[in-house]
């Protein structure tokens, strides 16, 4: 790590990153998001972390496809699409994230669609509980709240439900349908904060309200500016809490990140996204980062727009890991 970088105080090996590349698209219906990790890696992300930011990287450079986990038959269950597949993949992913996090490393997960956060958050939460006896906080940067329960979801896509499962708002006993999630995997919703929301379903608004969940929408960003919003978000989770940052690239305006499955206009500039990541880095509390929903095959002008989106994603990750601070 460079001398100007902030070492995370909750990591015993702050210079080490466990990388998990998740080539998975089963939480939604559009092919291509599974190709994001290799596109990000090919564009040089891991080399930059190694050579420019001086991290030591652990874990396979190869992308996990999890094909061995896909059940032969995966019918909808409680309105969820591909429930058995998403459950099995996120369970395996939770073990991968856990095994890095329990070593005291930073964990970087490259998605994949946002359903994978069921696995990443479950793995971080469990490891941090065991290592430090603490609960993690989650900063969820997204156009969407992804807190539908199977019953409130219109689409049945599990990438719109991860927060509900990992916080216990959506419950299921069957082990093959997320019943593997145990109390040690869970996120306390009082330690959850959203930034960037602008497309929240009616049922999700009710869930946010009823559970008193702290959320900063694009309205708040226009009103207070990104600086104040990040300050308030960090104040909400407190200065002494390990942070898991889950960044959906669709939080950025489609101008900066056009290649994504559910783009919503009126989003963050790339600079605002980078600022969020830099600010989280500066807390010294970061323990895990997810970057999700980059889909290189979705774009009007494929090559150019996909390259833009990949570049934006790389920038966000580097900022979260300490780049660009003087
Ligand atoms: N991770 C995402 N891009 N999620 C989009 C979710 C969209 C919508 N709210 C749904 O539940 O289907
Ligand atoms: Mn989203
Ligand atoms: Mn999302």
Give an overview in words.
With 326 residues, the protein is α/β, with parallel strands linked by helices. The chain has one domain: Arginase, Chain A, CATH 3.40.800. Helices cover 36% and strands 14% of the residues. Strands 2-1-3-8-7-4-5-6 form an eight-stranded parallel beta sheet, with helices on both faces. The longest helix has 20 residues. The radius of gyration is 18 Å and the shape is globular. Bound molecules: arginine and manganese (II) ion (2 copies).
Largest sheet: 8 strands, parallel
- Strand-and-helix sequence, N→C? EHHEHEHEHEHEHEHEH
| Rounded mean pLDDT score | 96
CATH fold assignment: Arginase, Chain A
Number of separate strands? 8
Strand content: 5-15%
CATH class: Alpha Beta
Offer a quick outline of the entry.
It comes from Xylaria flabelliformis. By secondary structure, the chain is of the alpha/beta class.
Could you list some keywords that capture this structure?
326 residues; alpha/beta; Arginase, Chain A; eight-stranded parallel sheet; 36% helix; binds arginine
Topology diagram in text:
Elements: E1 13-21, H1 36-42, H2 45-52, E2 56-58, H3 83-101, E3 105-110, H4 117-132, E4 137-141, H5 162-166, E5 192-197, H6 202-210, E6 214-217, H7 218-237, E7 243-248, H8 270-283, E8 286-292, H9 302-320
Parallel strand pairs: 1-2, 1-3, 3-8, 4-5, 4-7, 5-6, 7-8
Helix pairs in contact: 3-4, 7-8, 8-9
The chain binds arginine and manganese (II) ion (2 copies).
């Amino acid at each position: 790590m460079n001398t100007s970088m902030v070492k995370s105080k909750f990591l015993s090996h702050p210079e080490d990153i466990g990388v998990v590349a998740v080539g998975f698209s089963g939480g939604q219906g559009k092919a291509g998001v599974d190709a994001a990790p290799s596109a990000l890696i090919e564009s040089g992300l891991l080399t930059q972390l190694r050579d420019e930011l001086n991290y030591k990287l652990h874990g396979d450079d190869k992308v996990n496809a999890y094909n061995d986990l896909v059940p032969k038959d995966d019918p909808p269950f409680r309105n969820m699409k591909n429930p058995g597949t998403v459950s099995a993949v996120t369970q395996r992913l939770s073990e991968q994230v856990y095994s890095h996090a329990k070593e005291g490393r930073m964990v970087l997960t490259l998605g994949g669609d946002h359903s994978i956060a069921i696995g990443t958050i479950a793995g971080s939460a469990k490891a941090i509980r065991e290592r430090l006896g603490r609960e993690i906080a989650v900063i969820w940067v997204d156009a969407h709240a992804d807190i539908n329960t199977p019953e409130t979801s219109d689409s049945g896509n599990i990438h719109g439900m991860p927060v509900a499962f990992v916080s216990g708002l959506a419950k299921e006993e069957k082990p093959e349908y997320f019943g593997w999630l145990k109390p040690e995997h869970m996120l306390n919703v009082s330690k959850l904060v959203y930034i960037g929301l602008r497309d929240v379903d009616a049922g999700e608004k009710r869930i946010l309200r009823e559970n008193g969940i702290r959320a900063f929408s694009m309205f708040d960003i226009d009103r207070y500016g990104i600086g104040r919003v990040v300050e308030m978000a960090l104040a909400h989770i407190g200065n002494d809490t390990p942070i898991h940052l889950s960044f959906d690239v669709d939080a950025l305006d489609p101008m900066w990140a056009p290649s994504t499955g559910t783009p919503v206009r009126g989003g963050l500039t790339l600079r605002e996204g980078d600022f969020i990541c830099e600010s989280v880095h500066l807390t010294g509390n970061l323990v895990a980062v997810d970057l999700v929903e980059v889909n290189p095959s979705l774009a009007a002008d494929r090559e150019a727009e996909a390259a833009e989106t990949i570049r934006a994603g790389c920038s966000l990750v580097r900022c979260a890991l300490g780049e660009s601070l003087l």
